[in-house]
């Protein structure tokens, strides 16, 4: 029997607000332990939470981008459980009345068609602190220390729907996560750095006979610290459950852990052992009533989303679809492109040069584009020099390298190297004549109908000019010297 | 009469006229403490040294000739449930016996800014759970009227201190009657303001939706003075109300001519000690003779109040007290433990008293899956009905008068073994917490040598009327 998986994500995203969700402490990811703490986020007796408005704005922004209904009234609830990193013995989260619900996120499926992944809800909650163990694990440690810098940092929990347009394969799951990160970065509400714990996923998986309407028992998988881990866990779990069903075993509803070393999932606790969190409305906070004006204001200031931007780049600038996808995959790339686009006219050339040339340098040096040593202004200048014919492509590449390593503007490289292109037809004509004269072998081959030696001759001329000639012009000049080739020869 | 027995109002005037110094006054209070504490046990911590320093500072402010704040130099006791920076704050519990807060509660900050001298931290039922002060890990506070009797709870230490001259004023907290009951039992005046009127920031939570900081003093006027200092919106407390803050002293003398006083009939039926009932009705008569219109009213859902209260309060408490886990502060078990779970268990078993454990367990049950709807949700619905009763009744009256307690003060040990009997002591006070209303307890007479408290209940944010009636009563009854 064929089985198909049903996949649902619970994704926790740390918002990049300046201060924490319920107190005035700074949100900081790399500060020394317990330097951004106060009575509120360490759960001192008597301390009370006060909601960060910015975090609510970010939540609504996410809700709008994910096509959710924004609840006019929402409520915080306490999720009660004991853990040493949880200072109050409960987490302030949401239960009934989350900020956003019933939305979707459009992804592209492998066959290229769009699919609107159902989003069940988006709610806001506080993060817990971080435990630092004296040994590799909690159990084997002699002692553990708690760092409360992360306690009370705002977390967005985004839950996909397992009934309405669920994710149906690991490939879709991956597309969903990538798209989600892309959108959240565009919204400028989270860095979504998985390695820093800013984007964490639990995933619910069940399998059922293909075409079946009923759902199988699901396993919730925790403890995946990377994209690869998520994909590995998913693949393993789907196979494990399918195999169980094939051999007639029942699948219990349970929570499983991903074993990082063995790349498998192992049981953590059964449904019967699931904790009772005893949710109830937090009496220290009041219901949040969002007025229409507040929501409208957020709507009006929504940044352009990746799909919208991609459409614009294709339609307005005529940039090829394949390049547009690259430009809009990462907000930082898109930002760089946008900064340059306002200062250049030839956006197609700009796009091509970012993707082909700049990326080559960035990749080789391992520098992310947001730290690119070439400012968008200087990059634009180079593109303008190229499109005005002031420098040739070959020169451009060499100038770019120097701009990259020396952090200089293109004009000064041109001036320093005397890299003015050879504009004079007469000078070029002379050079071409010389090359033709000095390479009789090539000439005779061309006469015999071969085209390759033309490239060779062009190369010789470019060598002599140190790249300062426009290869196209040179090619034309050479071609003209062999009129018989002109009819069939390519230009 | 010693200095420490005078009213805050009188003392403030004497200080202002420089007839006495704050140091003299503070010393008077401290020597009274030394004399009485072995019996009364009103304090968990006496801050003698810092008190004298604060008194000296207050005297310097007087000498400077500049305008001094309203409570400059007045010794005040703080219930040990309010966080005081650098001063141990135990909540009457072993689990916090060594807890020194890194911050001041908003009300403590305000009291210090008003120039008052903090004399110490008062005894209380553990985490404010109790009606007799017998649930303190530091031994019960005793009633200064007769030390064989309980001081009432949970702010028993604050009430006893004011009654015994061990403080001139005191701060307390009231979740189900914890200011009003001990005030009644000790024969003094105490006010629980409207929920949201006073910041809860730094008030260690028992039941967040019911807790409110209030004041205890020897007269309505004294209470009004302190209330003026502590009221007001606080952005550190999301439930604090951004309401207009009147001068509570200014409206005190307006009299009660034509004021409509409601007598909720359900508060005078079975279960009430006839001596209490007679004393209160006599006081109501006195008000009527002086121009008040007494109106019979009904609060039909009163019978649900105690049950609803104990469900809501314990549910919130079970969550609020989860933070005492031995990880960050307070007690951690000294015995061995295999893992963090065992550490929690042992710490909480050793650190919490019997009544606190009882309420945590009850509250945990109330919130559990499968019971939430039947208990917590139901209790919230009952709470709404109780509130609506008041709203409706207040359409025809300006304030209400009721007993504070159905019984006279009782002896230590008399009810401690019967929690249900003890819970019923709160029968007339918990409704106000459920409805968020202001209420005051003032002494309205004595029966068999024990004080009887009368409760004046006001509309939300109308403490002024409550104070006005209380003050008028004190004047006509020749008290203060």
Provide an overview of this structure.
The complex is a heterodimer of chains A (491) and B (480). Chain A has 491 residues and is an alpha+beta fold. Chain A folds into three domains: 3-295, no CATH class; 304-417, no CATH class; 425-486, Arc Repressor Mutant, subunit A. Chain A has helices at 53-65, 170-186, 227-246, 292-300, 306-317, 321-329, 331-341, 347-365, 376-387, 393-406, 410-417, 425-438, 440-447, 452-464, 471-480, 483-486; strands at residues 3-14, 69-70, 73-74, 77-80, 90-93, 100-108, 114-126, 130-133, 144-147, 154-160, 199-209, 219-224, 254-259, 264-270, 280-281, 288-289. In chain A, the strands form four sheets. Chain A has a nine-stranded mixed beta sheet. In chain A, strands 5-4-15 form a three-stranded antiparallel beta sheet, with no helix packed on it. In chain A, a hairpin with a 5-residue loop joins strand 6 (100-108) and strand 7. In chain A, helix 6 (321-329) crosses helix 7 (331-341), helix 7 (331-341) crosses helix 9 (376-387) and helix 14 packs across helix 15 (471-480). Chain A starts with a strand and ends in a 5-residue tail after the last helix. Mean pLDDT of chain A is 91; it is low at 486-491. By secondary structure, chain B is an alpha/beta fold. Chain B has a domain at 3-230: Amidase signature (AS) domain (Amidase signature (AS) enzymes, Alpha-Beta Complex), CATH 3.90.1300. Chain B is built from 15 helices and eleven strands. Chain B has an eleven-stranded mixed beta sheet with strand order 1-3-2-4-6-5-10-11-9-7-8, with helices on both faces. In chain B, helix 2 (22-40) runs antiparallel to helix 3 and helix 9 packs across helix 11 (354-367). The relative contact order of chain B is 0.13. The chains are: A alpha+beta (491), B alpha/beta (480). Chain A binds chain B through residues 39, 42-51, 78, 80, 82, 84, 87-90, 139, 146, 276, 278-280, 283-286, and chain B through 81-83, 89, 91, 96, 99, 101-103, 105, 200-205, 207-209, 235-239, 315-316, 318-319, 321-325, 327-329, 339-341, 344, 364, 367-369, 372, 376.
């Amino acid at each position: 029997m064929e089985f198909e998986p049903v996949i649902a994500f619970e994704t926790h995203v740390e918002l990049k607000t300046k201060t924490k969700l319920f107190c005035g402490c700074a949100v900081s990811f790399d500060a020394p332990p317990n330097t951004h703490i106060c009575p509120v986020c360490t759960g001192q007796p008597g301390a009370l939470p006060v909601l960060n408005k910015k975090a609510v704005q970010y939540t609504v922004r996410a809700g709008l981008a994910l096509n959710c209904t924004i609840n006019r009234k929402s409520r915080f609830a306490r999720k009660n459980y004991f853990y040493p990193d949880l200072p109050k013995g409960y987490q302030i989260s949401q239960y009934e009345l989350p900020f956003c619900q019933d939305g979707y996120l459009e992804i592209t499926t492998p066959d290229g068609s769009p699919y609107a992944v159902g989003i069940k809800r988006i709610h806001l909650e506080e993060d817990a602190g971080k435990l630092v163990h004296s040994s590799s694990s909690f159990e084997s440690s002699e002692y553990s220390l708690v760092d409360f810098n992360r306690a009370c940092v705002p977390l967005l929990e985004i839950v996909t729907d397992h009934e309405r347009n669920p994710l149906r394969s690991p490939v879709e799951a991956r597309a969903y996560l990538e798209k989600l990160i892309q959108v959240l970065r565009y919204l400028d509400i989270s860095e979504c750095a998985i390695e820093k714990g800013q984007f964490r996923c639990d995933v619910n998986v069940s399998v059922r006979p293909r075409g079946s309407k009923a759902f199988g028992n699901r396993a919730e998988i925790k403890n995946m610290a990377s994209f690869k881990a998520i994909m590995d866990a998913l693949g393993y779990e789907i196979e494990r459950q399918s195999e169980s069903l094939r051999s007639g075993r029942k699948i219990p509803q349970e929570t499983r852990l991903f074993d990082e070393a063995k790349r498998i999932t192992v049981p953590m606790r059964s449904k019967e052992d699931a904790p009772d969190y005893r949710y109830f409305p937090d009496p220290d906070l009041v219901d949040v009533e969002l007025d229409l004006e507040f929501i409208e204001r957020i709507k009006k200031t929504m940044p352009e989303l990746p799909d919208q931007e991609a459409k614009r780049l294709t339609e307005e600038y005529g940039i090829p679809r394949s390049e547009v996808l690259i430009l809009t995959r990462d907000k930082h790339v898109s930002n760089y492109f946008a900064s340059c686009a306002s200062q250049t006219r030839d956006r197609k050339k700009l796009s091509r040069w970012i993707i082909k040339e700049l990326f080559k340098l960035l990749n080789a040096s391992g520098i992310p584009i947001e730290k690119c040593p070439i400012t968008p202004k200087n990059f634009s200048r180079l593109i303008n020099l190229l499109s005005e014919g002031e420098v040739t492509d070959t020169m451009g590449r060499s100038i770019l390298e120097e701009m990259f390593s020396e952090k200089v503007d293109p004009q000064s490289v041109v001036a320093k190297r005397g890299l003015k292109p050879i504009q004079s037809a007469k000078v070029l004509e002379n050079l071409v004549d010389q090359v033709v004269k000095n390479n009789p072998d090539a000439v005779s081959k061309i006469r015999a109908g071969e085209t390759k030696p033309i490239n060779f001759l062009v190369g010789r001329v470019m060598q002599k000019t140190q790249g300062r000639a426009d290869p196209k012009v040179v090619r034309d000049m050479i071609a003209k010297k062999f009129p018989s080739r002109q009819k069939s020869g390519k230009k | 009469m010693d200095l420490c027995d005078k009213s805050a109002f009188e003392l403030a005037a004497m200080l202002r006229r420089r007839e006495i110094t704050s140091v003299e006054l503070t010393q008077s209070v401290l020597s009274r403490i030394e004399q009485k504490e072995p019996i009364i046990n009103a304090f968990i911590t006496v801050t003698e040294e810092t008190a004298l320093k604060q008194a000296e500072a207050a005297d310097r402010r007087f000498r400077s000739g500049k305008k001094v704040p309203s409570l400059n130099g007045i010794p005040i006791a703080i219930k040990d449930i309010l966080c005081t920076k650098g001063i141990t704050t135990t909540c009457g519990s072993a689990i916090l016996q060594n807890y020194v807060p890194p911050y001041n509660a908003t009300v403590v900050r305000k009291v210090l800014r008003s120039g008052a001298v903090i004399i110490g931290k008062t005894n209380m039922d553990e985490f404010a759970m109790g009606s007799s002060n017998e649930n303190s890990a530091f031994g019960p506070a005793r009633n200064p009227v007769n030390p064989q009797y309980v001081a009432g709870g949970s702010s028993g230490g604050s009430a006893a201190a004011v009654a015994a001259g061990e403080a001139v004023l005191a701060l307390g907290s009231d979740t189900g009657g914890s200011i009003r009951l001990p005030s009644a039992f000790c024969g003094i005046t105490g006010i629980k303001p409207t929920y949201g009127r006073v910041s809860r920031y730094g008030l260690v939570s028992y039941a967040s939706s019911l807790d409110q900081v209030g004041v205890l003093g020897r007269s309505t006027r004294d209470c009004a003075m302190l209330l003026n200092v502590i009221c007001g919106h606080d952005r550190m407390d999301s439930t604090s109300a951004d309401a207009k803050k009147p001068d509570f002293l200014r409206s005190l003398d307006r009299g009660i001519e034509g004021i409509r006083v409601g007598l909720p009939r359900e508060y005078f039926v079975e279960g009430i000690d006839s001596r209490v009932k007679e004393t209160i009705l006599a006081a109501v008569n006195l008000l009527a003779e002086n121009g008040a219109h007494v109106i019979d009213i009904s609060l039909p859902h009163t019978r649900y109040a105690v049950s609803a209260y104990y469900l809501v309060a314990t549910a919130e408490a079970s969550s609020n007290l989860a933070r005492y886990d031995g990880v960050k502060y307070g007690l951690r078990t000294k015995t061995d433990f295999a893992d963090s779970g065992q550490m929690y268990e042992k710490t909480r078993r050793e650190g919490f008293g019997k009544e606190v454990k009882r309420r945590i367990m009850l509250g945990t049950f109330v919130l559990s899956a499968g019971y939430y709807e039947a208990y917590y949700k139901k209790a919230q619905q009952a709470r709404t009905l109780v509130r609506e009763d008041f709203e409706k009744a207040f359409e025809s009256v300006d304030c209400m008068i009721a007993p504070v307690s159905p019984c006279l003060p009782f002896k230590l040990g008399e009810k401690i073994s019967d929690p249900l009997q003890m819970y019923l002591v709160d029968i007339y006070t918990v409704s106000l917490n459920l409805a968020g209303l202001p209420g005051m307890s003032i002494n309205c007479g004595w029966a068999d040598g024990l004080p009887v408290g009368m409760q004046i209940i006001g509309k939300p944010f109308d403490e002024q009327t409550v104070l006005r009636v209380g003050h008028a009563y004190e004047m006509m009854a020749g008290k203060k």
